[in-house]
Write a structure and sequence with these properties.
alpha/beta; 8-stranded mixed sheet
C-alpha cells in the first residue's frame, strides 16, 4: 500500500479532480501588479556558494523594484560576513553565534517588509522564472503555500541514479496530492508563503519545510507543488551521504509528529489521508518488513519458503555491498542497498529522536 497502493489511489483521485496544475497554463507574460517578495537564504561558512546564489537570484525574472534578496549568516566564521555585508545587491543580516536554520528563518521573516516570502537554500540554483511561478500560484484563491520542484542533475553512480529515480517517484505523488488537495510538506530548497502566514519556528526545529506549511494547512489553506518552479541540485552519489541526510529528515518527521499530535486526527487534520499514507506509513515500513521476514520464516507453504529465501538473498546482497563497494556497480544490488539503508535510516531516526540525539546545526554532506 505504501509504495504502490497509495500512489495509485492518489493518482486516480487526481485524474477525477477538476483542479489542474499544468505549469504550461501559467501565462507569465501578462503584465500584472506583482507583489513584493523577499528571498531569504541562510548561509553558514559557504562564501563561494553564497556568491553564486546571489548572482543566480539577481538574474531572476521578477520586477527589480519588487524583490529583495536577503542573505542571513548563521554564525559564519570563515570571513564571509565581511564580503556579504559589502554586497550592495543584498540585504545582509549576520550574528556571531551559530544557532541553526530555524533561527535564521525567524530572523529573516521578522525583518522582511514584503507581502511574500520565498525561502531557498544556498546550495542550489533557481530557474529564472521560478519566482513568478511560485507567486502566480500563491495568488490563486485558497492557496497558502507553494513548493518548487527540485530537479536532480546527472547522477554519476548507480546510487545517485536510484536516489534521483526515487525523487522522480516522490514528485509524482506530490503533484497528484496537490491536485487532490494539499501536499504534506514542501521542497525545503524552494517554497513560498505569504509573510503574514509565517508562524515562528521553535529554535531546534529540524524540518521547516514540514512545519511551516503544516501550520498553514491547519488554518484551511492549501499547500501545492508548482512543477514549473524549478531549482537544480545534484543527488548524493554514495549511500552513506544519502543515509545521513535521510536520518536527519526522518528524525525531523518524528519531532514534528510528537509536537503536533493533531496531525493523527482525521477531524483536525485536513489532509489526514495524505499524511497517514505518505508520511507516517513510510516510517513504519521497516517494522512491517521485519514482520514479513519473521512470518515467512514460520510459514511452511512453498510460496512463503521462497519468499523467505528471497529476502535472505536481498538483504545479504544489500549488506555485503557496504563492504564491497564494487558490487554497487550492479543495478539490482545497488537498489537493494539503497532500499535497505534508507529503511534502516527510519529506525535510526526514531532512536535519535527518542534519545534526544538531535542537532539543529546541520553539517553539510556534500
Amino acid at each position: 500500500y505504501t509504495y504502490f497502493g497509495y500512489p495509485l489511489i492518489i493518482w486516480l483521485l487526481a485524474k477525477r479532480m477538476a483542479i489542474s496544475l499544468d505549469p504550461t497554463e501559467l501565462d507569465l507574460s501578462t503584465e500584472i501588479d506583482w507583489p513584493s517578495v523577499t528571498l531569504i537564504t541562510p548561509v553558514h561558512n559557504d562564501l563561494e556558494k553564497a556568491r553564486k546564489k546571489i548572482d543566480n537570484l539577481v538574474a531572476l525574472d521578477y520586477p527589480k523594484d519588487k524583490i529583495t534578496i536577503m542573505m542571513i549568516s548563521d554564525g559564519s566564521t570563515d570571513g564571509s560576513d565581511e564580503h556579504l555585508r559589502n554586497d550592495h545587491r543584498i540585504q545582509f543580516i549576520g550574528y556571531s553565534q551559530r544557532q541553526g536554520k530555524p533561527t535564521a528563518l525567524n530572523t529573516g521573516v521578522k525583518d522582511a517588509e514584503s507581502e511574500i516570502i520565498i525561502f531557498t537554500d544556498v546550495r542550489q540554483q533557481v530557474k529564472s522564472d521560478a519566482a513568478k511561478r511560485l507567486v502566480s500560484r500563491l495568488l490563486e484563491p485558497g492557496i497558502g503555500a507553494v513548493s518548487g520542484e527540485l530537479v536532480l542533475l546527472d547522477p554519476e553512480t548507480n546510487t545517485g541514479a536510484h536516489v534521483s529515480l526515487y525523487w522522480q517517484y516522490e514528485k509524482f505523488i506530490r503533484i497528484a496530492e496537490s491536485q487532490v488537495a494539499s501536499v504534506a510538506g514542501v521542497t525545503g530548497a524552494l517554497y513560498a508563503i505569504r509573510t503574514e502566514d509565517y508562524t515562528p519556528l521553535e529554535p531546534d526545529t529540524l524540518l521547516d519545510d514540514f512545519e511551516v506549511p503544516l501550520e498553514i494547512i491547519r488554518k484551511g489553506a492549501r499547500c501545492i507543488m508548482e512543477a514549473g518552479a524549478i531549482i537544480y541540485d545534484y543527488p548524493q552519489e554514495d549511500t552513506a551521504s544519502e543515509k545521513v541526510r535521510k536520518i536527519r529528515t526522518l528524525t525531523g518527521n518524528f519531532q514534528s509528529f510528537f509536537r503536533h499530535p493533531w496531525v493523527f486526527s482525521p477531524i483536525e487534520n485536513p489532509i489526514w489521508f495524505q499524511f497517514i499514507s505518505h508520511k507516517f506509513l513510510r516510517l513504519v515500513v521497516p517494522y512491517f518488513l521485519l514482520l514479513t521476514f519473521l512470518s515467512s520464516l514460520f510459514l511452511s507453504d512453498p510460496f512463503y519458503r521462497f519468499a523467505f529465501w528471497g529476502q535472505i538473498v536481498f538483504y545479504t546482497l544489500a549488506i555485503v555491498a557496504n563492504f564491497i563497494p564494487a558490487l554497487k556497480q550492479n543495478r539490482i544490488i545497488s537498489l537493494a542497498n539503497v532500499f535497505t539503508e534508507l529503511n534502516w535510516a527510519a529506525v535510526l531516526a526514531l532512536k535519535n529522536y527518542l534519545s534526544e540525539e538531535v542537532n539543529v546545526k546541520w553539517d553539510k554532506t556534500s
